[in-house]
Amino acid sequence: MRTATVAGCTLALQGCDTMRHIDKLARFPAVDAEPSFRMRVERDVPFSCPKDKPLFETAVSRTFAERDGRYTVYRGDHKTSMTYDASYTDVCLRLSPQTPYEAVREYLAVLQCFSYHLLCTGGSLLHSAGVAVGEVGVALVGRPQVGKSTMAGRILRCEPTAEILCEDAPAVIKRDGRFWLCGTPFCGDDDACSARTVPLRGLVILEQGAENRVTEVSSREAMFHLMEAIPRPLYDGGASEKAVALAMEWIDALPILKFENDGSDAAGELLLRTLRSKGWFTERTTHL
């Protein structure tokens, strides 16, 4: 069994030793003896969808069923099923014989279910690049291939106090009335991740552009981007409602900017100058 503490939650993973990027969990030593999130993987389980009428079936061959307070999602094209409780604290992933890309399936299942668990506690993973600058954190949010990792690297080259917390899915949690940006092991194929936690100072929405320009962003546009960046189970309406409420809370509490940029070193320098001029890096705080 592998254990790790991520974003203040202790994970216990059983049967996940071949999971993609399993080695990164070693950077997040467990601090609690009692896990708050458990997940086990059962392999070579004969696959069969329920015979009774499912609650609904989606266009990607997912079938959802409920029994005795536990929920199961069956995915026919990948021949997998996932059973969990209402708060995603106890999850079982079942893989049929010869499931394609097993290590990737395990990794994505852990990432997704852990994010769903955080949603139940008022936090979430955020599809972004999380960067600590001094004593505060900034999340670079954007669609895939928009250049989040590139811009994080530009900031590191321009700012000696900067550190990448996670290049793909850092966590945002709320403690003592404040939002905190947490490093996680879910950094995809990149190696940059840290167990450090810092206060979240603000969000920057990245877009590609021919020139470098930082502008204010409307609440409506911010909501659109955040709802794309917060992982949530589309088959669970309650979780989607929590994601909307969480995004609205971030929009009300945090400064959010849009940065159209060309991905150059000059773009990174401009972003840092702008954030400094707005006082993002002047606050002195302590770690969680």
Structure description:
- The structure is a single chain.
- The strands form two sheets. Strands 9, 10, 11, 12, 13, 14, 15, 16 and 17 form a nine-stranded mixed sheet that branches. The protein has an eight-stranded mixed sheet with strand order 1-2-3-8-7-6-5-4, with helices on one face.
- 25% of the residues lie in helices and 32% in strands.
- The chain has helices spanning 102-120, 148-158, 219-229, 237-253, 265-277; strands spanning 2-6, 9-14, 37-42, 56-57, 62-67, 70-75, 80-84, 90-95, 124-125, 128-133, 136-141, 162-166, 171-175, 178-182, 197-208, 213-216, 256-261.
- The chain has 288 residues and is α+β, with helices and mostly antiparallel strands.
- The protein has two domains: 2-120, no CATH class; 124-277, Phosphoenolpyruvate Carboxykinase, domain 3 (Alpha-Beta Complex).
